[in-house]
Design a protein that fits this description.
Elements (H helix, E strand, L loop, with lengths): L8 H16 L4 E5 L1 H8 L3 H18 L8 E5 L4 H11 L4 H6 L1 H7 L7 H4 L1 H10 L12 E4 L4 H17 L9 E4 L28 H9 L20 H9 L3 H13 L4 H26 L5 H25 L4
Parallel strand pairs: 1-2, 3-4
Helix pairs in contact: 2-3, 3-13, 4-8, 4-14, 8-9, 10-13, 11-13
Length: about 325
Amino acid sequence: MRTTGQLHLGHYVGALKLWLDAVKEGYDCFFLLADVQALTTHADRPETIRQSVCDVVLDWISVGLDPTRPNVHFVLQSGVSARFEISQYLLMIANLGEIRRNPTIKAEMRGMKNPSMGFLTYPIDQAADIYMVSPELVPGNELLVPVGLDQVPHLEYSRVLARRFNKAYKTKVFLPCRAKVGEIGRLVGVDGQEKMSKSKGNAICLNDPPEVVSKKVMGMFTDPNRLKATDPGTVEGNPLFMYFDAFARDKGEVEEYKRLYRLGQIGDVPLKRRLVVILNEMLFPMRERRGMAEKTDVIEHVRRGTSDASVIANEVLARMKGAMSLF
């Protein structure tokens, strides 16, 4: 994750829930604090990136990622020197046309006047993030990347680069990664906009106190064509029900709310109040874990995880250079 601010519910449903599943399933997990990639948009605010590293680590611990487990590694991107060399060599087999056609790059460039070269090479750099811990392409190995829906195009290009490198140098250095997207790949903002974003002010952050969560939910965008509670309402595409689907444990309760809403037999206000309760019940243990973590040196976990990743990255780099006949 790019270290550009505290995390929100969109990060939780898009990636963090999948990360927790991967840990429980026994995968060797490397969670990257992408502080260098944060510079592609925050180069003029480097101090915020440093603070964000701490904030993101606290958010990770708060959701239940335990860095004391042997299969959990918190990795600082700028701390793995081999990763940068891997990225440089991958640049040699990429081409500009492919980058310009990347849908995520195209979408983000619309709001930029003069994007940096660091931004343009983001898809290749992200491939280096993945493949710096790549096992070799042999039966039984797997490289799984749990991500949000918007990251799937990036990962597909990472797969292209891995296959291209292996073919060009007649090697099995890289195991092409595989994307895993959760049931809810993207969560809209409370204002109904396409994507939840802290910069847009439409996000519920993981460390928001109960009263802030309540205020944001009670102001949530719903069905604009519904003028009063007795009007039949639309469930499909309604942010209120997207949040119920994402966070309510009792699916039967949600289906009943949908039925009543369509009939005009329940208003937005009682539904929002119920959603506030559901979200705060979910966030309560996160707030407790965060409070405990704030009393410790969380960066020590980052140092250890970065060291673990560096050992593997050096091995990958050695295989890569050997395949390319480099000293």
